[in-house]
Specification:
The complex is a heterodimer of chains A (163) and B (111). Chain A has seven helices and no strands. Chain A is mainly alpha-helical. Chain B is built from two helices and six strands. The chains are: A mainly alpha (163), B alpha+beta (111). The interface between A and B is medium-sized, with 31 and 34 residues.
């Protein structure tokens, strides 16, 4: 019993995306097999929407509890979201392009919409966490000549060196 | 501001020479607390031909991806900068090359 409890605690608290991606992949496979079945199309759309809503709910839970986590956990969660978004931004355009090939199917349109929605939910959530952990001081630096000069002094000639 | 740790790769604002700001990555050597300046190692895409004091990281390698680098980068541990905490934009990755960086820093002390 104790072992099970430990396992439950060790489960990542911030990875609802995995499940959503699994559902999408599973449905894509099924779609290839029986693309003309209207009944299946409707059933897939329902499954996708339910899955996205579960995903959305899980993300909201993470956001709601974010301030209650330790500082280290907050950093880990935000950084995890940041990395996932970087990966998704590379993957999602090709997923959407592939789905466009099945243009005639309603489920294709629906799936594209749901994938975009899921990505946007993820991005918005990450932004909220990011604002909390990394307040943006760029405007403050630009509007304060002293602050700006401090940066010029620190960087010296290296500021001319392009990254 | 989130606490930064040795080996964190962060994006920082630096002056663009026209009164604006640009962003570049640096590697954290030390950040005593959340409000103190960040001691960091300089990174650039420019090759100065100094193979002994530079560490090259390809952006497509596992190390480059783990560091969150968008371009092929030369780490120059011989150049250490103390940056105001306000110039930190965010954490973008973790650097697994801290031992190599420390060695180059030690070799350059007193030069």
């Amino acid at each position: 019993m104790k072992k099970n409890m430990n396992l439950a605690l060790a489960k990542p608290i911030y990875d609802p995306l995995d499940h959503f991606i699994d559902v999408i992949n599973e449905l894509l496979e099924k779609l290839k097999e029986s693309k003309n079945s209207v009944v299946n199309n409707i059933s897939y759309c329902r499954k996708i929407r339910t899955s996205r809503k579960v995903f959305e709910k899980e993300i909201k839970k993470v956001l709601l509890n974010f301030s209650t986590y330790s500082e280290k956990q907050q950093n880990e969660i935000e950084f995890h979201f940041y990395k996932v978004i970087r990966e998704l931004e590379q993957k999602v355009p090709s997923v959407i392009e592939n789905l466009k090939k099945e243009e005639g199917l309603f489920v294709s349109y629906f799936l594209r919409r749901e994938v975009r929605k899921a990505l946007n939910i993820f991005k918005r959530s990450q932004k909220k966490m990011s604002v909390h952990l990394y307040p943006d001081h760029s405007k403050e630096i630009l509007s304060n000549p002293e602050e700006y000069q401090k940066l010029v002094d620190v960087w010296g000639n290296l500021a001319e060196d392009e990254y | 501001m989130a606490k930064l740790y040795r080996g964190d790769v962060i994006e920082v604002y630096y002056p663009d020479g026209k009164g604006g700001l640009k962003v570049r990555p640096v590697i954290v050597l030390q950040n005593i607390n959340k409000s103190s300046d960040v001691i960091s190692v300089y990174c650039t895409t420019q090759n100065n031909g100094d193979d002994i004091n530079n560490i090259f990281v390809s952006s497509t390698s596992d190390v480059g991806k783990g560091m969150g680098l968008s371009k092929d980068t030369y780490i120059r541990p011989a150049i250490v900068k103390t940056l105001p905490i306000k110039s930190v934009k965010r954490l973008i990755g973790k650097c697994p090359l801290m031992q190599e960086i420390s060695k180059i820093i030690e070799n350059n002390i007193g030069k």
